[in-house]
């Protein structure tokens, strides 16, 4: 077998994971943090960035190529998605991104595709399924726990108490995590189950038991995976779920 053929065969064993794009409002451009892509690649996946704008039939075709989806961090979730108005004047949603993710998530859940959400990803999944959000933690959930840290983002700043499947997976009661958010789950969507709580009682991880693999975390394991085994386990577990779809 020629070298190119060998590489092609190796690539066939990697699940293809669609990554929801980040949005730069000032530059009116999509972009991506390499940490998301690197964490997925290290876990054995082949990630690619989905387009922000696509017709419904194009979205359906793209998802047909994917073995799983990563819902990334970023802008605030529009309050209208969970049936509310902006209560604080501090929400910064991205209309195009919300529109894309509504279509992607609806179709992905219908197809029972493996999904992993990070930060905004957790909040969006909760809002889409009928939960609500704190729109601005500093004004709506007073706490001494650091939820919006500065650099380095690879430095844990608070503890979470693990529950359910996540506790079983990691084999531990608590986990030190980083934190980069000013919004969070307020009311949990009826179909979701809590898998982690912060020191001040915020929901930090969830799963959707009725589906093959729908997990989401509030912290950022993509900044931690290079030095943290638990973060690598999160990504490898997600990728393994995607491999079963290959």
Please summarize what this structure is.
The protein has 8 helices and 13 strands. It has 246 residues and is α/β, with parallel strands linked by helices. The longest helix is centred in the middle third of the chain and has 17 residues, at 95-111.
Characterise this structure.
The chain is built from eight helices and 13 strands. It has 246 residues and is of the alpha/beta class. The chain has a single domain (3-243), classed as Rossmann fold. Strands 4-1-5-6-13-12-11-8-9 form a nine-stranded mixed β-sheet, with helices on both faces. It has a two-stranded antiparallel ribbon with strand order 2-3. Helix 3 (56-65) packs across helix 4. The longest helix has 17 residues, at 95-111. The protein is globular. The two termini are 23 Å apart.
């Amino acid at each position: 077998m020629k070298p190119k053929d060998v590489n092609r065969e190796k690539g066939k064993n990697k699940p293809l994971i669609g990554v929801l794009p980040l949005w730069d409002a000032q530059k009116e451009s999509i972009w991506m943090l390499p940490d998301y892509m690197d964490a997925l690649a290290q876990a054995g996946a082949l990630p690619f960035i989905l387009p922000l704008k696509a017709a419904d039939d194009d979205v359906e075709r793209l998802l047909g190529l994917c073995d799983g989806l990563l819902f990334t961090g970023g802008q605030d979730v529009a309050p209208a998605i969970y049936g509310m108005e902006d209560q604080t004047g501090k929400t910064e949603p991205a209309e195009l991104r919300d529109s894309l993710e509504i279509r992607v998530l609806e179709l992905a859940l219908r197809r029972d595709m493996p999904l992993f959400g990070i930060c905004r990803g957790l909040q969006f999944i909760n809002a889409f399924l009928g939960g609500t959000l704190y729109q601005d933690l500093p004004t709506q959930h007073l706490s001494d726990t650091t939820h919006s840290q500065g650099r380095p983002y690879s430095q844990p700043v608070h503890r979470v108490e693990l529950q359910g499947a996540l506790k079983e997976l990691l084999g531990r009661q608590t986990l030190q995590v980083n934190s980069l958010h000013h919004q969070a789950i307020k009311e949990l969507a009826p179909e979701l189950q809590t898998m982690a709580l912060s020191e001040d009682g915020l929901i930090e991880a969830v799963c959707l038991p009725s589906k093959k693999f729908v997990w989401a975390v509030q912290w950022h394991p993509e900044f931690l995976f290079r030095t943290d085994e638990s973060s690598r386990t999160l990504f490898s577990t997600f990728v393994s779920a995607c491999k079963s779809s290959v």
